[in-house]
Amino acid sequence: MTAKPFLDVLLCSPRGFCAGVERAIQIVELALERYGAPVYVRHEIVHNRHVVESLKAKGAVFVEELDEIPDTAQPVIFSAHGVAKAIPEAAQRRNLFHLDATCPLVTKVHREAEIHFRKGHEIILVGHAGHPEVVGTMGQLPPGAVLLVETEADAREVVPKTPNQLAWITQTTLSVDDTAAIVKILVERFPDIVGPHKDDICYATTNRQEAVKRVAGDVDAMIVVGAPNSSNSQRLCEVAVRAGCPFSVLVQRAVDIDWSRFTDIQRLGVTAGASAPEALVEEVLDALAERFDLNIQLVTTVDETVTFNLPRQLREPAE
User: What integer is the mean pLDDT of 23-46?
Assistant: First the structure.
């Protein structure tokens, strides 16, 4: 029997689920417990196929729009990414019992946008076009009130209507460094622009990127467990390469790994996006252990203690 090659694994911490994701999943599970199936969920509750499929198996029905939901007394849940104001208004008109699983840190950005708007500021949102969080944030205000900036080039070219009355906000799951570069350009161009009191990029996105930066220069490759439509997972791949890792790959689960790319490595970094369950990280480590003699070292940059309250309807005793 041939001896397995030796592999050092630097396992990033924090990784995986954040408080907002845990809260959103818990909302669906508690709603199913309390009200029974089906529970309707608008959009993927979080961007992870494994999570969505496991909730489907328990009785959650996922839809993209409210018009796919029949008239019902069963709960309708809005995803962690947040929704435009028109969505709960439409649910109200149909008397749908709705629960909001929007991450409180996304709600914070929504409130910031409203406050800036009331103060007469034109708003620049740094984010990715089409991402559900960006659609939801822009949908807090009338059309045209928010200008979207995705890149440094956009920041150089954006032409606001009121350049002396500007405010900027950001999507919560961006690259910390990319966003800083974009904001720097905006501040240089528009010195009076107003920013958030506290960074909009959430603690979990920041912490996971910092952990990746810590190990990126010491490994031959990085595996990021997460979904291709997960913004924060995609950013972890980019951050790893920028911080000195020769290459990083995003995989949804162990079966997705192209082992031919890992034949000559001696040190591997492993992390997971904020919507990826720890079970999928363990699955990847098990697959690695079948092929390598592993030495796993946990690299911790910060301990996370953040928790968020559930919606009032799920905190109150059942009738």
Answer: 96
32 within some domain: yes
Q: Are residues 133 and 216 in the same domain?
A: no
Residues with Cβ < 8 Å from 133, sequence gap 6 or more?
81, 82, 106, 127, 171, 172, 173, 231
* Catalytic status, residue 133: yes
Listed residue (206, 148, 204, 203) closest to 175, CA to CA: 206
Q: Is the pLDDT of residue 260 over 90?
A: yes
Same domain (yes/no): 59, 142: no
Q: Is residue 306 part of a domain?
A: no
Q: Where are the alpha helices (DSSP H) in 67-202?
A: 86-93, 104-118, 132-138, 152-157, 176-189
How far is the first Cα of the chain from the last one, in angstroms, to the nearest whole number?
Answer: 63
Print the domain residue range for 36: 19-102
Catalytic residue among 44, 112, 122, 133: 133
- DSSP 3-state of 292: coil
Last residue of a domain, one of 189, 213, 244: 189
Residues 244/212, Cβ–Cβ less than 8 Å: no
Query: pLDDT band at residue 77, thresholds of 50, 70 and 90?
Result: very high
Q: Provide, rounded to the nearest whole percent, the portion of the chain with pLDDT above 70.
A: 99
Whether residue 166 sits in one domain with residue 111? yes
**Identity at 190, one-letter amino acid code:** F
Residue 51 region, left (φ>0) first, then alpha (ψ -120 to 50), else beta?
alpha
Q: What is the CATH number of the domain that holds 127?
A: 3.40.1010.20
pTM for this entry: 0.94
